[in-house]
Design brief:
With about 230 residues, the chain is an alpha+beta fold. It is built from 9 helices and 5 strands; from the N terminus they run H-H-H-H-H-H-H-E-E-H-E-H-E-E.
């Protein structure tokens, strides 16, 4: 079907309306534009919700990962998108990211830096700022908990030892993996990263907790302090 910009969705055939299509079929049957149109709710006098959704996808070059990185200010540059619609799209993208980050993390066993990375990487998808996350492990290296400790700016974030070890002790953890991302894509640890690692390792020793690794993450790549002999 060729959608006419001036044709209201209300006038479309029942089977072509995104909401009705979602009700009658599996969600996977809908196109990206149709799913976005449902989030938008309505169009304006000039454009249908589908046409606005297509314009959003064009801004993201039809890449959902790029779409997830757009903020409300960027989305509001598109005709027909106000704060309410932009906020709805950004919120939906964030919920999807959070769902990915929590899937099957608890009770997984960590056997290597890569397996730890696999459990942590989704927390860093699409982030433009640094965040600091920890994995809390049992004596057998099973994951007891995963916790975000802090969110910072583009070039750094602060990790509070008190908050880190409060989380570990609350979960009765025996060991710990710390991690943060480098939005710049440069995985080389900074002097501050090295100093922080030493500080946390010393605190771990005082509490009889083992620091297993410190991972620096960017997209599908990571740097492991343990693998590089820096612990």
């Amino acid at each position: 079907m060729n959608y006419n910009n001036k044709l209201s969705i209300k006038l479309w055939a029942e089977d072509d309306k995104p909401r009705e299509k979602l009700r009658n079929k599996e969600s996977s049957a809908l196109s990206d534009a149709e799913l976005l149109a449902i989030l938008l709710g309505s169009g304006n006098k000039r454009l249908s919700a589908i046409e606005i959704a297509k314009n959003i996808l064009m801004m993201a070059k039809k890449d959902l990962n790029a779409l997830a990185k757009l903020n409300t200010v960027e989305l509001m540059k598109i005709p027909g998108i106000g704060l309410a619609k932009a906020s709805t799209v950004v919120a939906a993208m964030e919920l999807g990211r959070r769902r990915q980050s929590t899937v099957q993390a608890i009770h997984k066993k960590v056997s290597s830096s890569f397996s730890a990375f696999e459990l942590l990487k989704t927390n860093y998808f699409d982030l433009q700022v640094e965040e600091f996350w920890i994995l809390i492990l049992s004596r057998s290296n099973q994951v007891l908990g995963k916790k975000r400790i802090s969110t910072g700016g583009v070039s750094g974030t602060v990790a509070d030892n008190k908050l880190i070890f409060k989380c570990v002790l609350e979960h009765l953890g025996s060991s710990l993996i710390i991690s943060h991302n480098h939005p710049s894509g440069n995985l080389k640890p900074s002097k501050a990263d090295e100093q922080l690692t030493k500080k946390i390792k010393m605190a771990c020793q005082n509490l009889d907790i083992q620091l297993l690794d410190h991972l620096i993450v960017y997209n599908e790549s990571y740097f492991s302090f343990a693998d590089e002999g820096l612990l």
